[in-house]
Amino acid sequence: NAGVTQTPKFRVLKTGQSMTLLCAQDMNHEYMYWYRQDPGMGLRLIHYSVGEGTTAKGEVPDGYNVSRLKKQNFLLGLESAAPSQTSVYFCASSSARQPQHFGDGTRLSIL
Amino acid sequence: DQQVKQNSPSLSVQEGRISILNCDYTNSMFDYFLWYKKYPAEGPTFLISISSIKDKNEDGRFTVFLNKSAKHLSLHIVPSQPGDSAVYFCAARVDNAGNMLTFGGGTRLMVKP
What we know:
The complex is a heterodimer. By secondary structure, chain A is mostly beta strands.
């Protein structure tokens, strides 16, 4: 039982490059989330989705875009990477009103 | 403005003793609170939760206490074990359709053998 799987686990980008982080869940959860974790700041919500085809902004959405074309997948895109986006990114999924389940994260460095 | 705060970045406890991790919040609309545990290079895992209609919830060695008037919750681990060494995040939720969580900054717990 894989749960929540994030791809890739590590990535180094140059400023201005673009990339997409993939999140896949096999628990048939309606809700999916993208967070970033920075030292001392906990996890901050970037974007979230309450169902296939729907997305919404979280606390820190600027510089990111998302898509939820399939229920099991939630993609996070960086169109033009900036050093301030160096962080650890976590994807999570949940059913309504249930605790969120997290993937193991993607460590992203932008030079 | 952080709505959920964990004011102690780290805590060191001897094995077998009690660990107490604290969390304060400012948003009176939060109705549900959770604790997550995180090991290095892994994602957070759910540990225990409490509804705002309760003041205590217990699960084995873990107990969460909620003081709504003080906007304060705490996680007690008794007895502490070396395997409990991890970063603990407090999180809170407002009752809405998105099930969104607001996290504190985390407390690193070190349990010494």
